[in-house]
Write a structure and sequence with these properties.
Elements (H helix, E strand, L loop, with lengths): L1 E4 L4 H11 L5 E5 L16 E5 L5 H6 L6 E4 L11 H22 L2 E5 L28 H18 L4 E6 L1 E3 L9 H9 L3 E2 L3 E6 H12 L6 E5 L2 E4 H12 L6 E2 L2 H18 L7 H7 L8 H6 L7 H13 L1
Parallel strand pairs: 1-2, 1-4, 2-3, 4-5, 5-6, 6-10, 7-9, 8-12
Antiparallel strand pairs: 9-11
Helix pairs in contact: 1-6, 3-4, 5-7, 7-11, 8-9
């Protein structure tokens, strides 16, 4: 039987939907307070929900009965510095518990890491799986949590765990709504005056789920794979989304000093309101950097044709218009 963590989240729900559409029975771990996504409600007969906190290993262990394959998608995502220590503890400890239980039950693991856990390539080169973070990204709390979580998987592999790691770039898709990467498109829809000079990797959530399943079903083990469809300049991304929405695209480049003012201002507003900052230092620094990724390793292992990102953008914009 298959176990999925994070099945109520963006990627986890899409992954689970793809599995059950293949008439596969799935057991999904969720918190008791989590809401089952609408996309999964039609498949109630094929999904067994198990309430457990990933930090409570004894309760989590009950979910592993009869499990042979585990997709670990669950993670706490936050850019707030106040969440640094609890988020790192939660993500790393939760992953460690999953790794230990997989070892105990001889289950194969597909761990969803992040492109944030991959080091940057030299300027002008594509980032590959061989790039490793040379210095701990002190201010990027999410990157720290994903890097240290991935290290738990490699620790398990050293102890005999059968596992594969995926490092998706920015995951987009209509199912995100206005949260996560969906905030990018909602911001464009509301009107943007500025664009930044950097670039990023983009991949549709359906493709990430499809690649995860293909890798799980392969013979590959003890490897990590970047999952990235295309590399896009932010300017092109914002312009394409603006055209889909029928709004004016941004026309002025935001210089680094302007981005610094923006994140500092957002931090002040967040402090006053108690809400998450709309823009932080890490995002500001990344906005002016070209971050482009190589997917050739993945394509050598599985037969994958990525959905064109322009198509994904159209689908997202149409969904947000509804």
């Amino acid at each position: 039987m298959i176990l999925v963590t994070g099945a109520t989240g963006f990627l986890g729900s899409v992954l689970t939907a793809q599995l059950v559409r293949q008439n596969v029975r799935v057991r999904c771990v969720k918190r008791s307070s989590s809401v089952i996504p609408d996309v999964l409600k039609p498949y109630a007969a094929l999904i067994e929900w198990h309430d457990a906190d990933l930090l409570e290993e004894p309760i989590l262990a009950d979910a592993f009965e009869g499990i042979t394959n585990v997709y670990h998608c669950a993670a706490w995502v936050s850019i707030k510095q106040a969440d640094k220590e609890p988020m790192i503890y939660t993500n790393v400890t939760g992953t460690a518990n999953i790794v230990n239980l997989c070892l105990e039950h001889n289950a194969r693991l597909l761990h969803v890491s992040s492109i944030a856990a991959v080091g940057a390539a030299k300027p002008g080169l594509l980032t590959t799986e061989k790039n490793h973070i040379e210095e701990t990204p002190v201010n990027n709390v999410y990157a720290i949590s994903k890097l240290e979580s991935e290290m738990e998987v490699w620790r398990g592999i050293a102890e005999g765990l059968d596992a594969v790691v995926i490092n998706p770039s920015v995951i987009i898709g209509a199912a995100a709504g206005t949260t996560g990467s969906g905030k990018i498109f909602e911001t464009v829809r509301a009107g943007m005056k500025y664009y930044s000079s950097g670039s990023c990797g983009l991949v549709d959530v359906d493709d990430v789920a499809k690649c995860a399943i293909a890798l799980m079903n392969s013979d590959v083990t003890a490897e990590r794979f970047i999952i990235n469809a295309e590399n896009w300049k932010y300017k092109d991304l914002f312009e394409t989304a603006a055209r889909c929405f029928g709004v004016k695209p941004p026309t002025t480049e935001a210089k680094p000093w302007m981005l610094e003012l923006a994140w500092r201002g957002a931090a002040v507003i967040a402090t006053l309101t108690g809400k998450d900052p709309s823009f932080d230092k890490i995002a500001a620094q990344a906005a002016s950097v070209e971050q482009n990724y190589d997917n050739s390793k993945l394509k050598k292992v599985i037969d994958v044709e990525f959905k064109p990102i322009a198509q994904s953008i159209r689908e997202i914009c149409e969904a947000l218009k509804q």
